[in-house]
């Protein structure tokens, strides 16, 4: 556990000014891929503090969301039209349009809606680019602040008591594994 925190905090710190380039790029990559963004957000908090870390996390997540949206819009939408048929795609687009900006923004505040899935889904649907960008920019703020400042606190705890910080991380990992196992059991087909 000590090696993990040391690598994250001090490894990024060793980059010097390049950390301000690498950290947002890492956030952007995580936003494009179906990888949880909590760890890089917390690393940003550990390295940059709550304010700058939140800004770095927010910029990186917004860039990654925009990249996902554009890839889905340009490559995924034609494929989706062929897979579900043009009529089904029109019905989906109509549903998304009826939900409006408030529906998209509201989904950003629901913790169980995956950030990456919403980015790709908005690109596949007829969500206007401007609406997608501003609802994403506003909607991710609470999560950005929560996870980045958690990293700031975890970094401070790590510097004060590495064993306690390691135990806390281990506890969180065990809890996440338990939640994953329960969800997997619920989804598994009866056999």
Number of helices in the DSSP assignment: 9
Name the beta content range.
under 5%
Mean pLDDT: 81
Stretches where pLDDT is under 50 for at least 5 consecutive residues are none
Tell me the distance between the termini: 39 Å
Instruction: State the shape.
Output: globular
Radius of gyration: 19 Å
Number of domains: 1
Counting DSSP E segments of at least 2 residues, the number of strands comes to: 0
The helix/strand class is mainly alpha
Topology pattern, helix = H, strand = E? HHHHHHHHH
Helical residue percent? over 70%
**Largest sheet composition:** none
3D architecture notes:
Helices cover 85% and strands 0% of the residues. It is an all-alpha fold. The chain has one domain. The N and C termini lie far apart (39 Å).
